[in-house]
Design goal:
The protein is an alpha+beta fold and 343 residues long. 15% of the residues lie in helices and 33% in strands. The strands form five sheets. It has a seven-stranded antiparallel β-sheet. A four-stranded antiparallel β-sheet has the order 7-8-9-10, with no helix packed on it. The longest helix is centred in the last third of the chain and has 19 residues. The structure holds FE2/S2 (inorganic) cluster and fe (iii) ion (FE). Fe (iii) ion binds next to loops. FE2/S2 (inorganic) cluster binds next to loops.
């Protein structure tokens, strides 16, 4: 467990990012909807092992630990909407209530501590989201989800050996494009970043708008819809607390490609990465072809971030920042404030 000191007015405080920290009160995407058909599925969030399954039309998330002798409930099975432990057959209902102790026979002597404390769950954008405790906010709205001109493409989830905070810092940063992404789209971009102005992009996302030239190799044609060597992009990139980034790319022909970049803290230095794409295209290009270039870009970020150890310093003086880092500096400030205010 990493304890991060917070400066900039938060001196003498510490905050725990994993464990009993404030991120427990936030929604985190932990699986794709298709991963829990029906389950049970084992996963780890904020250092805690969880079981996830779908039954009776509901998504259920609970600690992956049977209260009896700590068997992993994810090794069990679902019978008649009941999660049955693989060790001695105790059964749990969808609200976590222990409904069956076979060794006790017909006697209804179920100990009060036998019940599971289920988490909050939601299904949104093809993802399963969970929160340990009463969520302090809702999942941000992506307007394209309900716009019939757009289709949604889910990409799967990957495990990255890096802190979720480092991922957000990276996703808000455009100055690494010509360096880290020279092999995909970055070689056409100037290394100099224009002055960035932070604005409220909508009710949920704070960020900046900018224009950029992007290299458009053969691998990118399915995504950009253009065969030009270089394409101009009108873009906006912004964050929604705690750990979401949305990047919108618009091309000259009106094609929009919206990316929701999700960073889920498995523990302090291991994270789930997933991206969701919305596009107002004609559906003629298969989904996997559309997102293969985005996957290649993500792979470049993964290699870079996995070279850096530990958590992202959150105190203002912990890193040297320049004007191009303004978006991530502001996200770090608000992230630290969120954690301070919800302790
Ligand atoms: Fe689960 Fe015994 S450990 S029923
Ligand atoms: Fe990147």
């Amino acid at each position: 467990m990493v304890i991060c000191s917070v400066g900039d007015g938060y001196d003498n405080q510490t905050m725990v990012l994993v464990g009993n920290g404030p991120l427990r009160c936030c929604w985190h995407p932990v699986a794709e909807s298709t991963d829990v058909e029906p389950g049970p599925l084992a996963l780890t969030l904020l250092g805690e092992r969880l079981v996830l399954y779908r039954t009776d039309g509901r998504i259920v998330a609970a600690p992956d630990r049977c209260p009896h002798r700590e068997a992993p409930l994810s090794a069990g099975s679902i019978v008649d909407n009941t999660l049955v432990c693989v060790y001695h057959g105790w059964g749990f209902g969808t609200d976590g209530t222990c409904v069956s102790v076979p060794s006790s026979g017909a006697a209804k002597s179920i100990p009060p501590a036998a019940h599971l404390r289920c988490l909050h769950t939601k299904e949104c954008y093809g993802l399963i989201w969970v929160a340990f405790d009463e969520p302090i906010g809702d999942i941000p709205v992506i307007a394209a989800e309900t716009n019939p001109a757009f289709r949604r493409i889910n990409s799967g989830m990957q495990l990255w050996q890096t802190a979720a905070t480092r991922m957000v810092d990276n996703f808000l940063d455009i100055s690494h494009f010509p360096w880290v992404h020279a092999g995909t789209f970055g070689s056409a971009q100037s290394t100099e970043v224009p002055l960035l102005t932070l604005v409220e992009l909508d009710d949920d996302f704070t960020g900046y708008v900018y224009e950029v030239d992007a290299a458009n190799p053969n691998d990118a044609v399915a995504t950009s819809g253009s065969t030009d060597e270089v394409v101009h992009r009108w873009m906006s990139t912004g964050f929604a607390l705690p750990l979401l980034v949305r990047s919108t790319i618009r091309y000259a022909d009106g094609l929009e490609h919206i990316l929701l970049l999700c960073s889920t803290p498995v523990d302090d230095c291991t994270s789930l990465f997933t991206f969701v794409v919305w596009r107002n295209d004609d559906h003629s290009i298969p989904e996997q072809d559309v997102i293969s270039f985005d996957r290649a870009i993500g792979a470049e970020d993964k290699v870079m971030l996995e070279r850096i150890g530990g958590s992202l310093p959150l105190e203002r003086t912990g890193l040297v920042s320049v004007q191009s880092d303004k978006p991530s500096v502001e996200w770090r400030r608000r992230f630290a404030e969120l954690i301070r205010n919800t302790r």
